[in-house]
Amino acid sequence: xxxxxxxxxxxxxxxxxxxxxxxxxxxxxxxxxxxxxxxxxxxxxxxxxxxxxxxxxxxxxxxxxxxxxxxxxxxxxxxxxxxxxxxxxxxxxxxxxxxxxxxxxxxxxxxxxxxxxxxxxxxxxxxxxxxxxxxxxxxxxxxxxxxxxxxxxxxxxxxxxxxxxxxxxxxxxxxxxxxxxxxxxxxxxxxxxxxxxxxxxxxxxxxxxxxxxxxxxxxxxxxxxxxxxxxxxxxxxxxxxxxxxxxx
Length: 248
Description:
Layout: E1 6-10, E2 16-20, H1 25-29, H2 53-61, H3 68-78, H4 83-92, H5 95-99, H6 102-108, H7 112-123, H8 125-129, H9 140-152, H10 161-172, H11 177-193, H12 199-219, H13 226-229, H14 235-240
Antiparallel strand pairs: 1-2
Helix pairs in contact: 2-7, 7-9, 7-10, 9-10, 10-11, 11-12
């Protein structure tokens, strides 16, 4: 897609959302490698030799259950700085970021769950494997662009609210107010349709979406990233970070 490409996306709430897939392109470009280094590789590998998306999907989600216990079991992988989870993701899945080929992407995009896993690979895997380094944000542009394509294809239909949460999280990770609006609106929608067993989880995610929105509204960037990105924090940002909940 070109720098000014727009996608009209019909989300599960029935609301038409116009998404600029390359919002603030020049800013986003700082955090991504050249396509030739990641998504544009080509090879003649047989499908049987390609990394299997099911392996990453199963590790990330397991067997989705509509219970609070399921959420408690997954949280160390999803959001906690769990050393064992980070080491496994770094060892087993991070190499796929460099091994990614056109044929691999095409294969994964054939099904909603495979496509979702491709988004996870670019958005979530770097955050675990390269925690607290610049590389953790390096693939955000690819992840967000894939999320736009996923939604444009209507692959969100019939998916669990927990699965779709990780699609909309790609917008929450973007230092752009329009993306934050999409994140807040769509996560609220998933909270409304989520099972009662996941209600507490979505209350927390709604609060976090609101905090991300507020940070961008106030500062135009995430203060908690400043030290990683070599940015100087303002006095207002330092005060903002005094609240531990603002360290996303």
